[in-house]
Design a protein that fits this description.
The protein contains two helices and ten strands. With about 180 residues, the protein is mainly beta.
């Protein structure tokens, strides 16, 4: 794991060494940072989102983000396997109001193909009420790729896949370095 600066140096977090910055390859929205595993079809996305307004407990906010992702992905099926609260003393972002983790699965196609792939979704939500922002970190981890998918290819046995420990380290290590990113 090595430190990665995000959003022009406004944030940092620790990510696996084996990663490609997708902003070098394609245009990424200003509120996102996207990294891809060089040998697998895994991707990690960090997003600064407008705070989900809800009268429900914060746990509801991460479920809303997960359901929104399923809709955007055109998911044929979506299932939350586990929801866990991560206490503020376990994360490095001192401005956090709360932190939540979801492990789920979605059956989704890539590039609007008809072939569906089963993708495990690790999603972390850090609520930052001081700036009315939700920091969303998502690891997309394909666990069953259809033979008809453009993503279907042999992964070298030497490939070191990202895992839930890598994801949780990234989630717990994110730090705000410059609050000017919020326009303050």
């Amino acid at each position: 794991m090595t430190e990665q600066l995000l959003f022009g140096g406004a944030f940092s977090l620790e990510l696996p060494v084996n990663r490609n910055d997708m902003s070098v390859v394609r245009q990424i929205p200003d509120n996102q940072e996207v990294f891809a595993h060089p040998q697998t079809d895994q991707s990690l996305i960090i997003e600064l989102m407008e705070e989900v307004e809800t009268q429900q407990p914060d746990e509801h906010a991460i479920k809303t983000h997960f359901e929104d992702l399923a809709t955007v992905n055109g998911s044929a099926s979506s299932n939350i396997i586990q929801t866990e609260e991560i206490t503020p003393n376990e994360i490095s972002l001192h401005e956090a109001g709360s932190c939540w983790y979801i492990l789920g699965e979605q059956s989704i196609a890539k590039f609007k193909e008809t072939a569906k792939n089963l993708v495990q979704i690790h999603m972390g939500l850090i609520r930052v009420p001081k700036y009315s922002t939700d920091v969303l970190i998502t690891l997309n981890d394909p666990i069953n790729i259809s033979t008809e998918s453009s993503s279907h290819h042999a992964v070298p046995t030497s490939a070191v896949r990202w895992n839930s420990g890598d994801f949780k380290r990234a989630l717990q290590s994110i730090k705000l370095l410059d609050p000017g990113v919020f326009g303050v």
